[in-house]
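#structure-requests
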Amino acid sequence: MEKSLFIGNGFTNSQILFLIPIAHGYSKKMNIKVWIFEFMPPDSVLKNQDLQNIFANYHIKELNKNRHFFRVLYFFKILVTEIIPLIKLVKITYSKKLGFDYEWFDCQLQHSIWDQELQSRKDGSIYIKFYRLILPAIRVLVSVKLAKYLVAEECVVSAFLGHTVYSGRGLLAELNRQGVDIICHGNNVLYRAPITKDVSWSILNKNEWSTIFQFLVEDQIEAFWKTRKQGNSNYLDASNAALKTMDVETTTPKNLILLHVFKDSPFNCIDRSRIFFDYIDWVRETLYIISTSEERWIVKFHPSASRWGEDQRVWINALANSLFDNLWPTNIEFSEGSYSNIDLFNNVHRVVTYQGTSHLEAACFGIKPIIISNSTLSSYDTSLVLKPKTLAEYSKLLLKKSNSEEFRLLESEIYIAKKLLYIREEILSFGKDIRSIYYYRGDDELIKKADFESVLSKVGDLLPLFSETGEFLANGLTRSISLKYIKIWGNAYDLT
């Protein structure tokens, strides 16, 4: 049987447009002649003149033709023959240990189950019932079974995966365990999943950082930062966060907590050393601790939560009721978007966030951020962040005086943060190359169509560079990069 390449786990139609030439370059080097799609691309992709010549080189199959049958078959098989392992897995997940004390594969499944259940919750559902984890657990185990089928029956040796969270993480975990070469996608970056180790598009290893640093031009970094601190960014969340309807004043609190989207999984890269198991646990404990603080705090909602389909006020009210019986502490106030993040970073002394882009932005303003999970900054140098190892250490950091020097970075460290932010937004992703329009789960079809048309208008001219990107990945390159740098990156990176 000829070896196959699997393409699935949630690629959008616009992402499929650029993935096809990348997969082609990869497949040529790997001598792969069969492509298996989880869902067949739409006619707007299949009949595209620029892509038809590529499709002609492969035997194209669709998993979805057999997918429903296999899912039903595996669903009942799990209920009948694997009910004890299923219940055991659900119990472990329900305990909220989430794999901290388990092997890599088991850890992936537990997080996958938790992600899948959380995605379907109503806003404000801060507690979970045991039975609600059973169906997500079955979905995850079905994904594991499908991965086994792909390897055993379809001879899949390589896979391009659109995302790495929710039940799809079960597919990733089993393909990884089977030795499949997995290329993941995130934010218009493709990156290789190492064997039994977690990475993400924005967390690089030392070798990758040092190689990319060779691309930097000092004047470009300063020009970028001058524009960026005015609120202009390629990253949509950052641009949204810079909007404001109120000015920061001298009386505005000096302590800032930046929320994330509660139901958007943080586990594309699982940090098993973190002290909280998810956002809800983190926010609950954080609010409880700062309620005893002698200083005033501001908690800012995520700028894109509503477009994601989430009402963060509902979540906060539910947490307030559970913690304070609706008697909200007077030292905590909330911003649903009134303040600009840029203005806040200029004003505050202490910034607390889980792991998002804001931790890097805060560092560019001289604030050493308090983070919970591994991040871009900590992957470069752990001394540039405050990442507590225990709840007691976290509490101490929150209750310390905000004017402490512990929350300040040196000028040399601030400049490193600016470099990393520049790399993250200008070098790592090829989003600018394809003019992609970022959209969220709650956005309407018009935005999705505009994104597709925008990428479609560019992809034909970029076919050779995308194909070359695929060849570099086949040769061992660990991640893609902006097409402006792909030739330098592919040739300069140490593939040994």
